[in-house]
Structures are given as C-alpha cells and as structure tokens.
Amino acid sequence: MANDEDFVVGVVPIHLNEWREVQSMLSCVWRDETKALGFVRLVADGERRWWFVSDSYRMVRFAGEADSQTYEVLVAPRLVHMANTVADVDGSTELVLRDDPERGGPTVAIRGDQGEAESLAPKMQYPKIDAVFTDLARIESLITIDNDRLLSALSTVSIAPVDRDDDDLPTMALVGSGPGHIWLRTDWDEVGPSVITVFGAGGAPVPPQRFNLRYVTELVQLFDEEINIAIGDHVPQLKMESGRFSAGLMAIKQDSAILRDSVEAVIRTVFGPDSLQRDADGDYQIKVVGIPIWGQLVDGDPAQLTVFSTLLKDVDGSPELLAELNDLNTNLTFVRVNWSGRFVTARVELVAETLDPAELFTAFKRVNDAASNISPMLNAMFGGDTLDRDAERWSAYLETTITAEIVPNTIESLNGPTASEQWLFDSPVHVITAWNPYNIIRSPEENDRANTELAIALARRGARFACARGSANDGLHFEDSFITWNLTRDEAIELGREFRQEAVFELTPDEFRLVHCGTGAVTSAPRT
Fold this sequence. Notes:
Low-confidence stretches: none
Helix content: 10-25%
Radius of gyration: 30 Å
Structural class: alpha+beta
Mean pLDDT: 87
Number of helices: 11
Strand order of the largest sheet: 5-2-3-4-17-16-15-9-13
Distance between the termini: 70 Å
Largest sheet: 9 strands, antiparallel
C-alpha cells in the first residue's frame, strides 16, 4: 500500500524564522482564498526564495534564504500561521508538495517534528506582480527616514479633528517629498488640512499623490529602524525598502496592469482566446458579428472592466434624445445608456479585481440585448448610424447550404443549386443549432455538448428531427445543426432564443428563409 512519501513531488526546507517574516506580510493578502490574491506566492529562481503578497493595492516582496531549486507555489495564509505549531524545537520545517489523487488533487503542506498542516493547492494563476517591482526599481530619489519617527507622523496626521459619521471610510492622505524630507497631508472638510513633515536624508521634489493612510501605516510597520521611501513620478506608487523587504502601494488611481492577467483569464473563459486580441486603444472586441461589443480595462479606484457597445454614432444630443435615454435608464437594470460626443453607448462597469465568468457573461448579455433592441428603435427615432450591417450579414447567411440526413446514410442538400426540386415535407421545416451562442466562437467540445442539450430539448417537445449541417459558401465554416419538421415557427424561434442563437432557418418547397430570433423578421431567397 502506498504511503504519503510515494506522492511527494517536492520538499523545501524552511526555517521558522523565515515563516515569521512571511507572517508579518499577511495583512497585505486579499482575504479570500477563492481568489489568487488570497494566497502567498513563493518563487525560487535557482538562487534564492522570493515571497510575494498583494491585495491589488499593496504589494510586498521578501527575499528569503538561498535556494538552488526552481519552483512556484501558492501557499494559503492559514498554513503560514501554522508553521509556529508544527516546527521542530530548533525551528526546522519542510514545505511539502504532494500529488495524491485520494487527497482531492495536489496539496501543499508544512511539516515538522511537532505536526503537519496541509491544504489543497489552488488551481489559479497569480497575477504577474514581478512587473510591478520592475517599475518600482525605476523609482529613484529615495529618502532615508527613521521608521519610528515616520510611524509617529502617520499616527498624528490621521487624527480627525471632529467626530466623523463615516468612520468606516478610509482616510486618504497626500504624500509628497522634497530634498531631505517627506510630507503628509490629510484634508478635513470642517476645519481644513493637517500637514506634517518628516526629515531624513536624500530625496528630491516629487509631485504628491493620494494614498490610503492605513495602507501606508501597515506597510511601514513591516520595516525595522530606517526605511528608504520614495514617491513615483511617472509611476503612481509609493516605494518602500529596507533589508530584505520591498513594498509598493498604488496611489488612489488603481493601476489595472496588475489585474490584466486575471481579467484576461476570465475573458478567455467566456469568449475564447480570439477575444484577447486588443485594438489600438487597448480594448478587447468580445463580439464581432452584428453591433460590436467591447471590453475596456480602466484604471480607477477600483479598476474596472467596462463592457460597452456603440448603439448609434453621428447623432446629435437633442433634448428629445437625452429625455429618451433618461426614460430608458429608469427601466433598465445593470446596464446604462448615455450620449457623449455624438455617440450613444450602452455599458456595464464591473470591478476588475472580483470579476468572474458568470458576471462577465451577464454584462455581455445585457449590453447585447441593448444593442439588438434599443439601437434600432433609437435609429428610427433620431437617425444616426447603428454600426450594424444586418443587410450584408443576412445576405451572407442566406448563402448557407443546408445538408441533412433525412434518409439514413444519405446526405442531401436541401437548398442551393444542388438541391433536389422534390420536397419531402408537408409543412415548413426549421434548422436550429446550439453552436457558437451569441456568435461567440466555442471549442468543438463545447459546441457538441450544446447540441446534445438541444437534441434533448427537441425530444422533450416531441419534435421529429434529424442531423443537419449549415455550411458557408467558402467551404471553410460550418455549424452542425438539427432539422425538425413538426415545430411551428414560434416554437423554433423559442428554441433559438433558449440556445442564444441570433436566427433560425426555415425552408418551404419554394423558399429558404432566415428568421431573426429577436424580432421575428424574415429574410428569404429561392430554395433552389
């Protein structure tokens, strides 16, 4: 029978003193282990161990002991705390990596003579904060200041001169520097500002930036004795370093760069890898067909992913249009429409740090619904350009060739120049697919699963159906589908909507029709 050691894939000796240094960093970890930032990142580069923590505002790096191995692992904060309990009398511990299927997946453990603590290894990618420390390294004009004196100044400048009703809100401070000093300023609406200057050695004039005062204080508490501190000029961060610790704090305009990797992972999950291509403005085009829909990662407090679509362009902001938009916003949920610079847009703003696939897809759907339903109405009322080229697209769709296996083992064309003039059905037939919902390209496996669900839905309705395929005239693009011959048009449209399709096909002895699932509009061409 296998024992635990049979599943060990890595062992790293780490002394308790190093764990205690890491414990001091845990106040800067995002307190949610369902997110990558809820963990401590440990990296060994063949020479040394490096520990990283971040809550997206604060980033701390600690240089651990020498290590000739190379690896990267995420360690749960609760394990870091448990090092005190399991360590040997001399402080020795081991970080143990296992891959035991009976444990539910790869695990991370800390063990010593006094015990062992273990948790599942997260299946998440940590944001690439290495680039942030590269930026921090470029910040110069460091001022060396006594740590206790700086902490005293931070405590003093944070004292509110009157009782505040909003005690839960963070206190913000302007932080600036000059030759041989750093200054802190808090503004109080009732009585004016508090300003304190702390003298040190070095430094240069740098324009001030706003920071969360509590975050500044907690970072300074990491350091002993003297601390080197600087404010970024071109980089919106506060830099601190001393001994083996380096830290950065984002100014109150959150840099979205640190969140881009995690945001792109969610975009990829929902819309596929092609959606990660960015345009010249840095925006992601997450819907190409019809009215385009975009995702834009925006700096702010907090950083946001804005999902938006242009409903109209080249339209005047008349009082009537603005009144109509106000009425729409009164009744809309989750999405807002507005006019600016001769453009009408629909947009949803999502917090980038906590973005998840379900939330992103819901935002996309709301914007897509606004583009499909509100854009034509506003165009009819106020003019402008809708950016949708339905006529061209519908014409291209009508060049689709439908083939089906009506008779077992016989594939027949039901429309186009090779279609038989003989018609086998007594009523119109419909062709429905579940492939590529909302025109978002899915993997073959995802599309096959969706079509299986569609087949189950057809069977539950008592529909008679057979396998079909719609092929573009370029011979490159196709979508597997089903042809059904005992559903009404309304029933076919309902199924199309259920499986997030833009349209379904309808065939009669004489016509090949495209039926819009949203509006019910019909465009037709001769069947043969």
